[in-house]
Design goal:
12 helices; 7-stranded mixed β-sheet
């Protein structure tokens, strides 16, 4: 992508942000702070409410953040800002204080983000943040600018755009008419308590699905299925551990890197520090380690180690972890390691066929409802109409391993189109996974938002 400045305009076109979950909200707020005063920001969101996204729109107080409140400020230069806001919140049910830290309900965090956007819209001075409550389904270069097209047919010219759609949905395979949205539990009250429900996936999204089923009155048996049957670990008090000084050989070899981390865990345990402290010590350099691995070693990580990394790196809040452990102990939640092969729909149930891990024979069982909790989808497989059109036009392309989009170091997108584009595209958050690795949690995305806003401001000022 060209580094040429945007042309001077008598009435500057906005920088558009597509998506108003955390990625888009953080990007919009940082753009307002970094851009010249006359440059507006257009924030586009398909959902009913801004600042929520899917993750923070839940009203279930059992849906807790998976990161301690102390690390959830939207501002990298004001790390205690969310904790300060939380101190004045009046929703005691949404705040859980544990020995491992304070964890807030995700709906409460959505309220925090909504208030930040409200302050940006109603603050002093001429309003610069413009809200568009429509899905953006296409972006195309036109006459030296970008034109956004909405699902309702409206056109929005922009000087540049930020793709901030968050986690993409995984494709629904195999399909079934008995699938239900785990985030839209209106029909859960009609589930029969004597018939099982299947949750596909056993990670953090499974925890949310189980919490929703129980909160909405389903008391029956739940079967959670994934290829390895691994459940996310739980946050626990952990002492500090120094950042290991990895050698060049360790940084270039997944085998040697893993062996060194295991030695660090053993050394920490010998002095009473849990493995949590060792993994937390790696946070500042995880992306550096990922970027330094050869492509073949990255592929090995994705094939063999990613599920183990995910369940240890992305942990559940202690109350949620305790609830899942109690369900498993009581037998009301069965976690199975198996590969889902097929789903046969019948009038009032689905017959699910799977192959248990390590077994040669398949098993079939009946469920009344299927909830998809597999988590993050891949850009290379997405059905999102905007991304499909941008890929088809060559304006963006899947990045390494097809997980996210290909991006330059300044978070501008890389595409197949050669030559100068009339206006730039940027992205952040889960959409850059593959090029970078730590890009899905709030502490990482807020830093990306600040970096992206600086890059956009430089381009605007030229």
């Amino acid at each position: 992508m060209s580094d040429r400045p945007l042309p001077a305009e008598a009435h500057p076109l906005p920088i558009a942000v597509i998506g108003a979950g955390f990625s888009g909200t953080a990007a919009a707020i940082q753009l307002l702070a970094q851009l010249p005063p006359g440059r507006p920001v257009l924030l586009c969101e398909r959902a009913e409410r801004f600042g929520r996204g899917r993750a923070y729109a839940t009203g279930n107080p059992d849906h807790l953040l998976n990161v301690r409140a102390a690390n959830m400020s939207a501002f990298p230069d004001r790390p205690s800002q969310f904790e300060d806001w939380l101190a004045g919140a009046d929703e005691a049910e949404g705040i859980r204080r544990t020995s491992a830290g304070t964890f807030a309900a995700r709906g409460l965090y959505g309220r925090y983000l909504s208030e930040l956007l409200t302050a940006a819209v109603t603050g002093p001075g001429a309003p610069r943040l413009q809200l568009v409550n429509e899905a953006i389904t296409d972006i195309a270069p036109e006459d030296g600018r970008l034109v956004l097209r909405s699902e309702g047919g409206r056109r929005f010219p922009a000087a540049g755009a930020v793709l901030a759609m968050g986690n993409l949905a995984a494709p629904e395979e195999p399909a079934s008419r008995h699938r239900a949205d785990p985030w839209n539990p209106d029909g859960f009250g009609r589930l029969h308590p004597d018939r099982a429900v299947l949750v596909v996936g056993t990670g953090l999204s499974m925890v949310d699905a189980v919490m929703n089923l129980r909160r909405h009155g389903f008391a029956g048996r739940i079967v959670a299925l994934s290829r390895r049957g691994q459940v996310s670990t739980v946050h626990a008090p952990a002492g500090a551990w120094p950042l290991p000084d990895f050698s060049a050989g360790e940084r270039a070899s997944l085998t040697r890197l893993l062996a060194r981390i295991r030695r660090e865990v053993a050394a920490a345990a010998a002095v009473g520090v849990g493995w949590h402290g060792v993994l937390d010590a790696l946070r500042p350099i995880t992306d550096t380690l990922w970027l330094g691995l050869p492509e073949a070693e990255k592929a090995r990580f994705l094939r063999h180690l990613r599920p183990f990394w995910d369940v240890h790196r992305h942990r559940a809040a202690p109350p949620a972890g305790a609830a899942i452990a109690a369900e498993i102990a009581a037998g009301t939640l069965e976690v199975r390691a198996a590969r889902l092969l097929s789903i046969e729909d019948r009038p009032d149930e689905a017959l699910v066929t799977c192959r248990p891990r390590g077994a040669g024979e398949t098993e079939t069982f009946a469920v009344q409802c299927i909830l998809d909790a597999r988590g993050i989808g891949r850009v290379a497989e997405t059905a999102d109409p905007l991304l499909r059109r941008l890929i088809g036009r060559g304006l963006v392309r899947p990045g390494p391993f097809g997980i996210g989009l290909d991006v330059h170091p300044d978070l501008s997108v890389a595409g197949e189109v050669t030559g100068d584009l009339p206006a730039p595209l940027w992205t952040l958050g889960p959409l850059i996974r593959g090029v970078f690795w730590e890009c899905t949690a709030v502490p990482d995305i807020r830093n990306q938002a600040a970096q992206l806003a600086r890059a956009v401001a430089e381009r605007v000022r030229g």
